[in-house]
Each structure stands twice: as structure tokens, then as C-alpha cells.
Write a structure and sequence with these properties.
CATH architecture: Alpha-Beta Barrel
Number of strands: 8
Order of helices and strands: EHEHEHEEEEE
Radius of gyration: 13 Å
Number of helices: 3
CATH superfamily: Protein of unknown function DUF952
Distance between the termini: 17 Å
Structural class: alpha+beta
Strand content: 25-35%
CATH topology: ADP-ribosylation fold
Number of domains: 1
Strand order of the largest sheet: 1-4-8
């Protein structure tokens, strides 16, 4: 099952250079890497990244993450995927731009429409 991470371009460039993604500052603070399912990612963008530019949508094959990926209750009781460890770039299936439309909303790839 695909899961998603919204990441500032600069942070993702660092991960690509390093060969692994260790998380964003919020992930470090919480002790795990936050992800969203396809049904959750738009609300995540709206709630945590509203109006932000230069973002990327990282698509990940959740099955490749093994037992370190745990679905836990969060916003409204929904189960969100959390990775307790680093994200190996070998689990990444796509990296897409996440631009803003004229109203300031993020435009998601057609694969999520």
C-alpha cells in the first residue's frame, strides 16, 4: 500500500545525497516519521503545509518498510502510518512536485485525484 510524505525540497535533496531520509524536525521531536495515506494526505497538506511552496510529495511502498511501520491513532482517531526508523530511499516509488494553484491550494499528482 502506498503512503505519502510531504517534504520541503531542500530537506529531500539532503536525503538523496545521504541515501536515507531521517525525517523532518517534527519527526525528530515525535520520535518517528509521520506519513499519510492517500485518503489523508490532502488534509495533511492543508493543516500542516498551507501556503508553503517548494514542497515535494514522496510516494512510498509501505510494504517495503516492514514492522518498523506502525499505524497509530491520530487526528480524529484515524490511523496514520508512522515509521520508527529511517526511510530507505529504496522504498520510494515516486517524487512529485506539490505546487500551489492560484487560490493557494496544493495541486496533487493525477495519481491521487
Amino acid at each position: 500500500m502506498a503512503i505519502y510524505k510531504i517534504v520541503p525540497r531542500q530537506l529531500w535533496s539532503q536525503a538523496e545525497a545521504k541515501g536515507v531520509f531521517d525525517g523532518a524536525p517534527v519527526d525528530h521531536a515525535d520520535g518517528f516519521i509521520h506519513f499519510s495515506t492517500a485518503a489523508q494526505v490532502r488534509e495533511t497538506a492543508h493543516k500542516h503545509f498551507a501556503g508553503q511552496t517548494d514542497l515535494l510529495l514522496i510516494s512510498i511502498d509501505g510494504q517495503k518498510l516492514g514492522p518498523a511501520l506502525i499505524y497509530e491513532p491520530s487526528r480524529g482517531g484515524d490511523l496514520f502510518p508512522h515509521l520508527y526508523g529511517s526511510l530507505s530511499l529504496s522504498a520510494v516509488t515516486a517524487v512529485d512536485e506539490l505546487p500551489l494553484d492560484q487560490a493557494g491550494r496544493h495541486i496533487f499528482p493525477e495519481s491521487l485525484v
